[in-house]
Amino acid sequence: MKLWGGRFEDGPSEVFDRFGKSLHFDKELIDADLRGSIAHAKGLATIGVLSADELSRLTTALEQMRDEAKQPGFFDNNTEEDVHTVVISKLKERLGADLGDKIHTGRSRNDQVSLDVRLWLRDRVDDTRRRAEESERQNRGNQEAIQRLLDEISNLANGDLTVRAQVTEHM
Fold first, then answer.
1. What is the pLDDT of residues 87-135, one digit of tens each?
2. Which residue of 94, 102, 113, 131 shows the fewest CB atoms closer than 10 Å?
3. Distance from first CA to last CA of the chain, Å, rounded?
């Protein structure tokens, strides 16, 4: 699906076409794009743009895509220009053009990209925070184990030959 070019007699040059494609690196945004689309669909239903049935069909299709996108071949042989057009193309295949196009109501491409990047960044920050907390917990355990061992060695060095040093798996 081409996003632009309806007024031109010829298509873009091959160089420009390659330059405009971002699917190879914005695949990372697929989950954020799908989550954002689900939230947007719920908002459209709240204001009456989508019926309850349309919302159900859209969210089911988008949730299925979330599961499918985790599989290695999801993007294979895809000629779409970016992750957003992949999602729309797959929605239209599954639900028809009328319902597939409704997901764009009240939402520009810039809104969509901005939300996707913010959701993706928030996920990365949350993941980094979790890893830092886990690393801190492990470091604290290692420091405690080292301190216990040093205390035992110190007692040995002070002549207490009854001390039995223990190396545990805490480290």
1. 999 999 999 999 999 998 999 888 999 999 999 999 999 999 999 999 9
2. 131
3. 55
